[in-house]
Write a structure and sequence with these properties.
Blueprint: E1 2-7, H1 11-22, E2 26-31, H2 37-44, E3 48-52, E4 54-55, E5 58-59, H3 60-68, E6 78-82, H4 88-93, E7 98-101, H5 106-116
Parallel strand pairs: 1-2, 1-3, 3-6, 6-7
Antiparallel strand pairs: 4-5
Amino acid sequence: MWKILVVDDNPSILEAVSLVLSRRKMEVITLEDPAALHDYIARFEPDVLLMDIAMGSYDGRRLCREIKTSPEESKLPVILFSARNYSEESIRFCKADSMIAKPFRIDELYNVVSNLLPSA
C-alpha cells in the first residue's frame, strides 16, 4: 500500500484529502504542524508528499526546497497545492514535482498523486 504524507494547517483539508486518497487504497498520514515535517518523513517514509504552500509562518515552497536539496529526502516526490496564485518560477525554484490549485477535483488530485508513485 502506498503511503501519502499530507501537510496542511487546515484540518478540514487534511480530512477531505485523506478521505479521497484512502478510498483509492492509499495509506494517508496527515500532519497539521509543518515544524514536524522532516521527522514525519524519516518516521513514515512516504512515497509522495502532498503539501500546502501557505501554512501560517511556514512556506511550503521553502520546505520543498529543503527536501529537494537534502541527500536523505531529495528523491521524495513533492506535490504543492494552494488556493493562492504563485509564479511558475517560484514553483520551479523549489523543485516541486507538481502543483495543484485549490479547489481541486478529486480525479485531478488522484491522477497527480498516482503519476508520482514509484513503480511497483
